[in-house]
Design a protein that fits this description.
alpha/beta
Length: about 270
């Protein structure tokens, strides 16, 4: 039986879908069978980041409505055979989701995959609630800014109230990934420090991802940035995926900037 992980955020634009794509591929690179499922009904983007938009024939709504089988709807990644993708519907909206159908779909996927990664819609409406309802764990994606942390805190509260595991008296494992960190801005006090974020949210840190312009370029090309061995964000996602697969990987400090003086000196002597 696989583990179901919902990737969530309290607001849009924090890099949730990018994180889902890269973590899914990173898990697959570790030899685990992984499926990433786009639950953002009506606004799917995960297919483009994975470079699979032209291969979508059936979506998860059609599977849940028994218009197509899971086997027909699943798309195998072009870069790693361990990774599969299940697309969201673009022609429906989030009101089509029903708890019993979501539960059945997830149960089927758990039979065939080690990891089932659910990319939730941003915000805290019905689509979000259905994504978290049957998850074993949740990864909260935040940016080191006050509004992102505040909205993430609300999302965590809803997770605790809507989770089926919590209703059964069990615990949902909760982790946070701090995304788009700029060391110089943290040092200047323009971005929140990770320890402050962890104190506010009171959940475990899974990883830190630095700001990297290559992420946008990779997304536009349909190639998750984790494939770029020179990308600092790609390296960060690789470390996080390793942790999810049970590896003991130290947390790299990407918030300390000791290059400021050298940059100034380089500028003076240029």
């Amino acid at each position: 039986m696989g583990i179901v992980i919902a990737v969530i955020s309290g607001k849009g634009g924090v890099g949730k879908t990018t994180a889902t794509a890269n973590l899914g591929l990173g898990i697959a690179q570790n030899g685990k069978k992984c499926v990433v499922v786009d639950f953002d009904i009506g606004q799917r983007n995960l297919d483009m980041i994975l470079g699979l938009e032209n291969r979508v024939v059936y979506d998860l709504v059609q599977v849940m409505d028994e218009e197509a089988s899971i086997k027909q709807a699943l798309i195998k990644s072009k870069v790693n055979a361990n990774l599969h993708f299940l697309a969201a519907s673009q022609s429906k909206d989030k009101t089509v989701l029903r708890s019993n159908k979501v539960e059945k779909l997830i149960a089927q996927l758990k039979q065939d995959f080690d990891f089932v990664i659910l990319d939730s819609p941003a915000g805290i409406e019905s689509g979000f609630e259905h994504t978290i309802e049957f998850a074993d764990a949740a990864i909260v994606i935040v940016n080191p800014e006050v509004s992102s942390i505040r909205d993430a805190d609300r999302a965590i509260g809803i997770l605790d109230s809507k989770s089926q595991k919590v209703k059964e008296g069990k615990e949902v494992a909760k982790y946070v990934i701090i995304n788009r960190i700029v060391a110089e801005m943290v040092q200047r006090g323009e971005m929140l420090k990770s320890e402050d974020i962890l104190e506010i949210l009171n959940i475990k840190l899974l990883g830190k991802v630095p700001e990297d312009r290559g992420v946008i370029d990779a997304s536009n090309q349909g190639k998750p940035v984790i494939l770029d061995k020179n990308s600092i964000a790609g390296q960060a996602y690789s470390r996080i995926a390793g942790r999810l697969c049970g590896q003991k990987i130290d947390m790299k400090d990407i918030e300390s900037s000791d290059t400021g003086l050298f940059k100034k000196l380089a500028g003076i002597f240029h």
